[in-house]
Each structure stands twice: as C-alpha cells, then as structure tokens.
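Changelog note: in this version the structure field was regenerated for every chain. One regenerated record is shown below for reference.
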Amino acid sequence: MSGWTDVAEWERQRGGAGCRVCLSKASAVAELEASWVLIGPDDPLRGYVCLVFGRHAVDLHDLTDAEGAALMRDIRKVSAAVTRIVNPVKMNYEVHGNTAASAHSFLPSPSGRPI
C-alpha cells in the first residue's frame, strides 16, 4: 500500500469501484484473448505498450489457471509484435500494482536501441 494512507479508498478500489484502469478499455487499440492493448501518443518511447488484463483482479494469484495462461499468451503475442516492429535489443516487462489497486497493467517495452 505504498503511498496510500486512505485505507477505505484503497479497499474501495480493490473492489473495482471506479477503477481508472478498467475505465481505460474505451481507449483500447486491440482486444486479445484475456486483455486489451493501450498505446498512446504520450508513451515514453516507441514500442511502449500497456497490456491490460480484462477483468478487475487485485493480484496475479487471483487469476484462475486458465486466465493466467491466456494472459501469458497475450503478453507473448504483444511482445512478439513489438519485436517485429521496433527490433529492440531486449524487451523489458513491468507489472504495475503499487499505484493502482489491481493487477491490470503489464508493460512489454523495448530497450537497448535508440529510436
């Protein structure tokens, strides 16, 4: 709960109420098996992608085995697509869960090659 001091608000968001990540689906550029893809003009570098899990879940262990496998397939598909387009030296992967009360965002992003 780093940075969070309002426990009631944290618990409300853990339940999915007003989740800003869930609401981002309207901006999706693609829907995959278990997730959707966000790419924006203000992304920090070319090839940066936000892969958003399709339902509100707090932690990775909250996913069923089938959901976890489907999400990994989506991560691999997006990673392969970014690699084909950007040709990075290496891909980095981030899982964000410290600023939002959900395990939505998985960020494959290229590294090691100037744009």
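Spot check on this record: Residues 58 and 102 are 4 Å apart (CA to CA). The first strand starts at residue 30 and ends at 31.
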